[in-house]
Amino acid sequence: MGYLTTHILDTTQGVAAAGVHIHLYKHTDEGRRIHLHSTISNHDGRCDAPLLDVDQFSCGIYELEFAIDDYFAQSTTNEPHESLSQDGTLPTFLNTVVIRFGINDEQAHYHIPLLVSPFAYSTYRGS
């Protein structure tokens, strides 16, 4: 059976993004979102277990929500940067990063990396 994983990297500081709240939803044919799972990224910016276990893994449209504003609100850096707040925190332009994606192979590993800064993000289908 397939499984779903993610990895969050803080590109501002060049580190794994630990402590990011992550929520996973599945879209129904009627257009509703069903909450499936919530977790927090570990010290390596990953989840301790797959986001979807074998019993829940099925084809469909899903959304991952990453609470990036909360992460950067508690994140500080010692590097000088013109946009740092006076308390050393990184101001955020982004609030919640939402990635909507489809699963069409129940046997595959779907990996969704998120490279993020307070001002921009990038993602792709990883391996």
TrEMBL record:
One GO BP annotation of this record: purine nucleobase metabolic process
InterPro entries: Hydroxyisourate_hydrolase (IPR014306), Transthyretin/HIU_hydrolase_d (IPR023416), Transthyretin/HIU_hydrolase_sf (IPR036817)
Keyword Transmembrane helix: no
CDD domains named in the record: TLP_HIUase
Primary enzyme class: hydrolase
EC number, UniProt record: 3.5.2.17
Transthyretin/hydroxyisourate hydrolase domain residues: 4-126
Gene Ontology molecular function terms on file: hydroxyisourate hydrolase activity
Keywords: Hydrolase, Purine metabolism
Catalytic function, reaction form: 5-hydroxyisourate + H2O = 5-hydroxy-2-oxo-4-ureido-2,5-dihydro-1H-imidazole-5-carboxylate + H(+)
Keyword Signal in annotation: no
UniProt subunit comment: Homotetramer.
Family: Belongs to the transthyretin family. 5-hydroxyisourate hydrolase subfamily.
Function: Catalyzes the hydrolysis of 5-hydroxyisourate (HIU) to 2-oxo-4-hydroxy-4-carboxy-5-ureidoimidazoline (OHCU).
Official protein name in the record: 5-hydroxyisourate hydrolase
Organism: Marinomonas algarum
Gene giving rise to this polypeptide: uraH
